[in-house]
Each structure stands twice: as structure tokens, then as C-alpha cells.
Write a structure and sequence with these properties.
It contains 12 helices and 17 strands. With 412 residues, the chain is α+β, with helices and mostly antiparallel strands. A 9-stranded mixed beta sheet has the order 5-4-6-7-1-8-13-12-11, sandwiched between helices. A 3-stranded mixed beta sheet has the order 3-2-14. It has a 3-stranded antiparallel beta sheet with strand order 15-16-17, covered by helices on one side. Strand 15 and strand 16 form a beta hairpin. It is globular, with a radius of gyration of 20 Å. The protein binds 3-hydroxy-3-methylglutaryl-coenzyme A (HMG). 3-hydroxy-3-methylglutaryl-coenzyme A (HMG) binds next to helix 2, helix 6 and strand 12.
Length: 412
Amino acid sequence: MNIGIDTLSLYVPRYYLDLGHLAAARQVPADKYRRGLGQEQMAVPPPDEDIITMAATAGLAALRGSDRSTLDRVILATESGVDQSKAGALYLHRLLELPARCQAFEVKQACCGSTVALQLALDHVRLHPTRRVLVVAADIARYELGSPGEPTQGAGAAAFVVSARPRLLACDAPTGSYTEDVMDFWRPPYRDTALVDGKFSVKMYLTALQESYQDYLAAGGVPVAQLARCCYHLPFTRMAEKAHAHLTGTAIEGDALTAIAAGMSYNRLIGNSYTASLYISLAAMLESTSEDLSGQRVGLFAYGSGCMGLFRSATVVPGYQEVLQTERHRQLLWERQPLTVADYQRFYATQLPTDGSTLSWARHATGPFRLAGITGHQRQYERVAVAEKAAPALPVPPVAAHAPVAALVSVG
Ligand code: HMG
């Protein structure tokens, strides 16, 4: 039985900061961010956007036109949870008008929580082949202002429906994993920014990649040379170059560059979105590759600090192009509003009160859901009208890590 990803939808905040401006403000050469990290821009959520509003918008698009009564579960993967007890998926359950018999819960293991959720969804559909599961990954990556992690911030959501007879990707059975208790990146409940041992985290990412790939091979997986494309968790896009070079033992040029380039194109403009990052990369790869990938195998590597690595592969389903939301995603990327560094720092500094008092946010640009404010310690979400515009002919985002934003090309 083929089980896998049937639809894949993204959402990114309507504001971004150009990293050239951040580099100037932090007195760092812009090339350190652009070439050294492979990042051009980072998505910045306004005060009235949180992981729930982003997740609901992506989830709504993933469910568009489909029968909600066949959904058994909505699973939210996040490490930016809005409650220590109640699952954020319950807000989604209401905002997406899901049936009462559909379960809602949250999973966490840093950035690989979404891939754990995918595995849970695959196992559920294997047991109940007529049923479907909605997985939504949403995160806001926050580091201290002025820290080495600051240019790797970002935010976004990815939602996918897992079903039997999927129209996008059929997941292969072999999976590989690697787990070890380490302190490379973590965030205690009393902090809203991550603590990180940056260089160590990169080292652990590569260790988890190598070990989980070996485990995947031992389980019957195919060698990386037989994977037409590889998508990696992308804390910053140069990480894919480091990862793919580590795995293949080759320089990132020719076929090796083709295998990863398209998958970096959206993340380069969004930054790290933790749990959503790998699935944003997957969408970018499928949507920015002009070659027909039908029947080809792709590799997917998820890394969650702390740490766990998961390696798996999937086969692209013939006709997948019909299901892609390419125009919607390009519109989301190209119609964002630029921020100055001062505006970004103003958004960054906003906080909800923690004493139970009432606060209403001014309305900023958001998707169809917004966080209106808080009252009595309860977040207030509301649905807002967002004009549906006809998609203009939008350019493909730049694909190569060193390409300037203006270099608008498609890759084979
Ligand atoms: P840093 O100390 O600012 O950067 O931290 P650096 O000095 O190592 O420079 C970065 C690269 O830029 C280097 O290239 C420099 O040579 C280059 P590399 O040696 O890596 O090839 N560079 C330049 N290039 C061109 N022109 C220049 C120039 N100057 C320097 N002028 C670090 C970098 C990634 C450590 C930092 O940003 C950080 O701490 N980030 C947060 C942690 C992180 O992203 N870790 C990644 C792996 S862990 C992970 O992915 C999990 C995570 O998503 C969380 C989760 O699982 O929940 C983070």
C-alpha cells in the first residue's frame, strides 16, 4: 500500500528583514550572512501573528477542497508552543472547523518534531487506510539580538495531509534514526530565546546525519547516489551544502549541487522555521525544479537539536505537479513587506502581558487568522478578511546559495 503526503501548503509572515540591513546594523560584512550562512532575508512575524495563526493558515490551504470528515487527527509539531499544557492543535481544531471525532495533539522534539508527526501519521493511515491525518509544523526561531544566531532567525508553517494513495509523495518504508542526549540547543520554559552552542550544534547535526543515514541503509534504504534530490533541515541554507558534502564525500557542484539547490530557494528568503524548515525545503524543491521528477526518489533528513536525526526517502508520485501550490507560495514570498532594522526590533520587543490583563493588538498584515490579543490569560484568535488576488506571473526564487536575489532562474 502506498502511503504518503497528499497535499503540502506553506505560510510565511507578511514581513521580512533583508539581512544586508542587519549586517550593516551589526557591523558584520553582508557576505558573512549571504555566503557564509547562505541567507538573504528572514521572515519576521508581527505582534498579531503566532504559531497558531501561521499553522491555521497553512492547514486551511492543505485541506482546501477536501472532505474534513475523513480526518482522524490533526498533529501540531512545534517548539514555540503557546501553552505548557493545552495542545496548540486544539486551537487549530476550532479554527479549521474539524469534526469532534478528529483527535488534536502536539508533538515536540525540536526541529524534527514534524518528521516524528509524519511517522505517527503514516502508522495511523497504515492501520486505517480510508482515514487521513493533517500534520502542521509551525515555529518562530528567536535568538538574542546581536548573537551569532540572530541572522538565522525566521518563521513559517508547513501543513501536509497524509493519506493512502497520496498525490505528491509515497513514503518508502526504510527509515534511519540517531538519538543522543546532548546540549547543543535548548530553551528552558522561562526563556523566549534559544540557548545554543552553535559550532557544537553543527557538529551534532552532521553526526546525526551520518549515523541516521547508515541506519537507513541497514534498514534497506538506497544509497544517496540513487536519490534524485535531497532535502535537509535548513537552519540556514549553507547547512545543506555542508550536509550533502558530508554524506556524499563530494564537492557541491554539478549533480551534487542540482540535488540540493532547488530545495534551498525558499528557506534562503525565510530563515529557520524549525519544524517547518524541512517541509518548506521539500515544497521549494518540488516547485522550483523544471525537470519532471515523477517516479524519482528523494531523500529527507530531519535534525532536531538535543538531539535526534531521522533519515528517510520517498518516491515522487506521477502527476504531482497538479497538486503543487506553487503560485500561492510564490505570491506569499514575493508580496511580503520589507522592514527596517528599527521596525524589526520593535516587533521583536513586543510581548503579551503575563499578569492576566487585557491587551488588543493593532492590526498588521497577516493571513486569514490573527491573534487579536489576550484577556484573562487566554489568547484571542479571530478570522479576518484577506483579499484573494489573482496571482501575477511571479518569478522563481533564486536557487543557488550564492545567487543574488535578482538572479531569477529555474534549475533542472
Ligand atoms: P558564527 O560564529 O557567527 O559564524 O556562527 P562563523 O564565524 O562560523 O561564520 C559562518 C560562516 O561564514 C563560516 O563558513 C565563515 O567562514 C563564513 P564555514 O566555515 O561554516 O564554511 N564567513 C564568511 N563568508 C563570506 N564572507 C565573509 C565571511 N565571514 C565569515 N565576510 C552559527 C554560525 C551557525 C554557529 C550561528 O549562526 C549559530 O549559532 N546559529 C544557531 C544554531 C544553528 O543554526 N545550528 C545549526 C545546526 S543545529 C540545528 O539545525 C537545529 C536548530 O534548527 C534548532 C532545533 O533543532 O530546534 C538550530
